[in-house]
Amino acid sequence: MLDNFDLYIRALSIDWGRIYKNSYLRKISSIASLDELVFHNAVTFFVGENGSGKSTLLEAIAVGYGFNPEGGTKNYNFSTFDSHSELCDALTLSKGYKKANWGYFLRAESFYNVATAEEEYGRLSKYPQHFHEHSHGESFLQLAQTNFKPNGLYILDEPEAALSPQRQLTLLLEIARCVKEGSQFIIATHSPILLGFPDAEILNFDDELRPCRYEDTESYIITKMFVNDRGRVLRQLMENDEVE
């Protein structure tokens, strides 16, 4: 496991003077309340509802470290849509004393474009890849396994979107392997499986940004409630829907 001085990204700060006064970022509670964030663990999870700001901050971290906004390594320079926010220009990263040997920004929403770029780059090397020949989940996991290497920085945005529960367990094992080999992960997720990673720090983006126990995440609470008594949960949902 890494300590804070060994982390490739140790902290971040936001210069709010570089963000417009009418910016939508000021309306996102988790980000608007944030001036500085310190990372403590080799694995950090961002959790929260859609629109809570977790992917916005994750993307800004990735761009700040030098990754392509759509994903890939720091060497990728393709662009299909310029979507990154002004937060990227206002954010400063505090890096550790060691430089990561490798890194990857992997996001589910732009996976097709990244996989296409991987195949194009692969044609120029001795090791061509054929991600589009596999199912979405298989190719997503293959891309992760191909690019997860020791002493690396990996930023993942909702990787569970492409993966079955079994594949999520496989990804969890890949993360564990890389952490043992000196890697750092920052992950935005809704997955109660991934969130169960031991010794990870979980940051909740609902309202003001705050640390959160695994058992207090909505992903865990709702999944547990449904699995333990799905009949009652479904009845309540359907009864409420009929009332509305």
TrEMBL record:
Signal peptide: none annotated. Its main location: membrane. This is AAA+ ATPase domain-containing protein. GO terms for cellular component: plasma membrane. It is a peripheral membrane protein. It is found in: Cell membrane. SMART domains: AAA (SM00382). InterPro entries: AAA+_ATPase, ATPase_AAA_core, P-loop_NTPase, Rad50/SbcC_AAA, Siderophore_ABC-ATPase. Keywords: Cell membrane, Ion transport, Iron, Iron transport, Membrane, Transport. Residues 40-215 form the AAA+ ATPase domain. GO terms for biological process: double-strand break repair; iron ion transport. SUPFAM superfamilies: P-loop containing nucleoside triphosphate hydrolases. GO terms for molecular function: ATP binding; ATP hydrolysis activity.
